[in-house]
Amino acid sequence: MMETVAEPGGQCRLRPFSCEQGLLSRPDGSAAFLQGDTSVLAGLYGPAEAKLSKELPDRAALEVLLRPKVGLPGVLERSREQQLRQTCEAVVLGVLHPRTAITLVLQVLSDAGSLLSCCLNAACMGLLDAGLPLSSLFCGVTCALGPDGTIALDPTARQEQEARAVLTFAIDSRERKVLMATTKGSCSVEEMQQCLVTAQRAADTIFQFYRDSLRRRYSKS
Amino acid sequence: MAAAFRTVEPLEYYRRFLKENCRPDGRELGEFRATTVNIGSITTADGSALVKLGNTTVICGVKAELAAPAADSTNKGYIVPNVELPSLCSERFRSGPPGEEAQAASQFIADVIENSQMIVKEDLCIANGKLAWVLYCDIICLDYDGNLLDASVFALLAALKNVQLPSVIINEETGLSEVNLKQKSPLTIRKHPVATSFAIFDDALLIVDPTAEEEDLATGTVTIVTDEEGRLCSVHKPGGSPLTGAKLQDCITRAITRHKEVKKLIDKVIKSIMSK
């Protein structure tokens, strides 16, 4: 069990985030990611034997299950699951484990804004903890466009409600390209590009945090 | 010979075409399939539209019903979209509860309606706190040949433009609603969102309006929804190959051009109906 806390300051204005890996005993990989007051618990099983109906002949079949904090999963959770699944499929080297199943289960523990990016970060840390082969890492960043045009990173629930538009990006670690993008509300093209640049800069902080937390975990001290 | 190669190595087959900047069906990389729209074909619905994008056929029917507004928003009506992918449209869908693709598409349509503010829910309110319209928008795919999202958004827009709502007055004495079916008025559509989808091939190439075969071979998809002012209503990239900001900008530029073509088509069809 390894817990690390980061307090990013300066221009990034992300809320303090922390991560705990290997906290569950049954899954092959697990991680709990905390962003301010939003926290998500990820559990990863795999590569395991796949059901005949679900197995793919040349690659691993990835499945994501997102459980909301209250109530049964609905249409919104299915949509988020599809986005998370396709993001993970783009980085996991599934061709190394054909005819297997990789299951990622995400449980929302608390939602205080930026939930999707917290899920993305928890998923990536879970994949790292499980030791699955990845072509790159990814992180989730949410930007909220205030009514006056200011960009707020990692918005709280209140900032999201008051915002004109909320954009969530999954940025990859190799070249800071966009793996996943989803928007809520409408914005101009220039504003979207500005948010993207801000998100790419914030991704540097998060990737540094991943690196530090793994280094601390695996260094023999 | 080519048919055998296509079955055995579909990706290589496609790459040969993409190298020459064209696709097996003869289209260029930035070319859409022939788009046709038929409005008002379902007489039992309050508004309907049938859209064909090449082989992809999507029909949207809008039914208006009356309901009491929610307690926390007494001046708002409801718009309930639902996308159905019956087993009729493709062999990949089994009959039963809606699969992930149908649910994700329904959520996407709900987001587009909300983000673009094409219909303001306050316009659907008849009497504050007592009565409001509920618009059930059922989008059913009849033939799945890729690019479901574009066709669905287009069908929804055309069907909503076609909706005629009867006038409703609340009788002061009895407190009941009286519906006058003879007096109908159209909906106020404030914005016209149009979706443009792209498939990403080999992490680099972007092709517009993918067919089902191209979607299966692609490594990712992007859907951009723009309105008539060039504002982005939605950037929907559910995972897949990573893209740079510049490539995303190219997609947006193409989407803005497509918006103009679609808007012209819709206006032409609406005008031809009005003139009858």
From TrEMBL, chain A:
InterPro entries xrefs: ExoRNase_PH_dom1 (IPR001247), ExoRNase_PH_dom2 (IPR015847), ExoRNase_PH_dom2_sf (IPR036345), PNPase/RNase_PH_dom_sf (IPR027408), Ribosomal_Su5_D2-typ_SF (IPR020568), RNase_PH (IPR050080)
Q: Which UniProt keywords apply?
A: Cytoplasm, DNA-binding, Exosome, Nucleus, Phosphoprotein, rRNA processing
Keyword Iron-sulfur assigned to the entry: answer is no
Record's keyword annotation contains Isomerase: no
Would you identify the family this protein belongs to, as annotated? Belongs to the RNase PH family.
Q: What is the lineage of its organism?
A: Eukaryota, Metazoa, Chordata, Craniata, Vertebrata
Task: Name the Pfam families on file.
Answer: RNase_PH (PF01138), RNase_PH_C (PF03725)
Q: Where is the Exoribonuclease phosphorolytic domain?
A: 14-133, 137-201
Cellular location of this protein?
Answer: Cytoplasm; Nucleus, Nucleolus
- This chain belongs to the protein called Exosome complex component RRP46
Complexes and interactors:
Homodimer. Component of the RNA exosome core complex (Exo-9), composed of EXOSC1, EXOSC2, EXOSC3, EXOSC4, EXOSC5, EXOSC6, EXOSC7, EXOSC8 and EXOSC9; within the complex interacts with EXOSC3, EXOSC8, and EXOSC9. The catalytically inactive RNA exosome core complex (Exo-9) associates with the catalytic subunit EXOSC10/RRP6. Exo-9 may associate with DIS3 to form the nucleolar exosome complex, or DIS3L to form the cytoplasmic exosome complex.
What GO molecular functions are on record for this protein? Answer: DNA binding; RNA binding
Q: Which GO terms describe its cellular component?
A: cytoplasmic exosome (RNase complex); nuclear exosome (RNase complex); nucleolus
Protein's GO biological process: nuclear mRNA surveillance; poly(A)-dependent snoRNA 3'-end processing; rRNA catabolic process; rRNA processing; U4 snRNA 3'-end processing
Q: Primary place of residence?
A: cytoplasm
Automatic annotation (TrEMBL), chain B:
PANTHER family hit by this protein: EXOSOME COMPLEX COMPONENT RRP43, EXOSOME COMPLEX EXONUCLEASE RIBOSOMAL RNA PROCESSING PROTEIN
Q: Which SUPFAM superfamilies match?
A: Ribonuclease PH domain 2-like (SSF55666), Ribosomal protein S5 domain 2-like (SSF54211)
Q: Where in the cell?
A: Cytoplasm; Nucleus, Nucleolus
The protein's UniProt keywords, in alphabetical order, are: Acetylation, Cytoplasm, Exosome, Nucleus, RNA-binding, rRNA processing
Entry GO CC: cytoplasmic exosome (RNase complex); nuclear exosome (RNase complex); nucleolus
The lineage, from the top, is:
Eukaryota, Metazoa, Chordata, Craniata, Vertebrata
| Biological process per Gene Ontology, one example term | U1 snRNA 3'-end processing
Q: Name one GO molecular function term.
A: mRNA 3'-UTR AU-rich region binding
Which interval of the chain is the signal sequence? none
Question: InterPro entries given for it?
Answer: ExoRNase_PH_dom1, ExoRNase_PH_dom2, ExoRNase_PH_dom2_sf, Exosome_comp_Rrp42_subfam, PNPase/RNase_PH_dom_sf, Ribosomal_Su5_D2-typ_SF, Rrp43
What's this protein's family per the entry? Belongs to the RNase PH family.
* Residue ranges occupied by any Exoribonuclease phosphorolytic domain in the UniProt entry: 31-166, 193-256
Instruction: List the protein's name.
Output: Exosome complex component RRP43
